Amino acid sequence: MASLFAVLTPLWIPVDMLVFTHVAWVNLAFGRIVASFAFTGLVFYCRRAISLKHAYWALVILFSIPSLFFLFSHLILSNTLMSKTGMIAASSYAFLPFVMVAGISIFPLTIRESIAFVLPLLLISSLPMITSHTYMIPDFKAIAVFWLLILVATVGILSSISQLQLMHNLFTQSVIDPLTGVFNRRSGIEMIALQLALARRHHYPLALVFVDLDNFKQINDNHGHDAGDQLLVQVADAWQETLRSSDIILRWGGEEFVFLLPHTNGKGAEEFIRERCPAVQKPDATIQTYSFGVAEWLTDNITHGSALVSLADQRMYQAKIQGKNCIVGCSGNDHARSIELLNC
């Protein structure tokens, strides 16, 4: 939008030259050129925006520039004698507030954010209406124009909120597992890569735990898939409550989950699982058990996320072979495995 306004704003100068006095169009041209440079500066600022705070400031600047130009143009035109053609051209400046409040609809904002941006625009737009200059309100009373402006602003706010909701839904569908509510495999691959990159940069341990529910197929066969789905939800909820706020749980597929444990080495991950394993009851009233495979990038000397997952997966299958309900972990001596029975 800033790029578009930077180009379009000065293009109206020839029209002002044709219909206004020399003093009026020169002052308006000066205002348009300043606004165009301001929009251009905003373009470069947006390229360096790296946080939500920067984004807020970019929006504030984006709507402040036309608002200030609107007040500047009103000051110029309200003291200018104009012909009928000039009156028609000047009335076009009255539509700038409508463009500004309608522009809110382009951005995905919350209700609070939308109102925070719209209210100052409505206040600024109402200032010239108080003077009731005829060029500002052609064929309408000021109250009618302002009411229409409020209606446009309301539609813009609703559109902005709808965009945010749509983005939220798309994000949820692409990132969140619809059954368990935890992150899905697609987003998990990116998270593993990101967490591993951070761990390598700051050289802290990062453990990855591959988890498989023992004898899950029997649940589906004996109690139905709905019971199996419900068990998966209970397991995901239980582990989310058990894991630390900095840990990440992913549903890898079927009855398989992956835990990412930052600042945790292999031994710490094994101890954490053994001590904190939640007791989730199956439909047959027995406690659900798990097979765990643990890998840790420093201990196992692995620098790629896919290799870390693959190693943890292999160790999980070893836990299955060893009789399930156990952990196959890692140690510092040539990737030696340790088998530890769980009490969950």
Would you spell out the secondary-structure blueprint of this structure?
Elements: H1 2-8, H2 13-19, H3 22-47, H4 52-77, H5 84-91, H6 96-103, H7 111-131, H8 142-175, H9 185-202, E1 206-213, H10 216-223, H11 225-242, E2 248-253, E3 256-262, H12 266-276, E4 290-296, H13 297-300, H14 305-321, E5 326-328, E6 339-341
Parallel strand pairs: 4-5
Antiparallel strand pairs: 1-3, 1-4, 2-3, 5-6
Helix pairs in contact: 1-3, 2-3, 3-4, 4-7, 6-8, 7-8, 10-11
Write down the domain tally: 2
Overall shape: it is elongated
**DSSP helical segment count:** 14
Helical content, roughly? 55-70%
Distance between the termini: 57 Å
Sketch the major β-sheet. Answer: 6 strands, mixed
Describe this structure in words.
With 344 residues, the protein is an alpha+beta fold. It folds into 2 domains: 2-175, no CATH class; 185-341, Reverse transcriptase/Diguanylate cyclase domain (Alpha-Beta Plaits), CATH 3.30.70.270. It is built from 14 helices and 6 strands. A 6-stranded mixed sheet has the order 2-3-1-4-5-6, with helices on both faces. It starts with a helix and ends with a strand. Mean pLDDT is 88; it is low at 134-139 and 332-340.
Structure summarized in a few sentences:
The protein is an alpha+beta fold and 344 residues long.
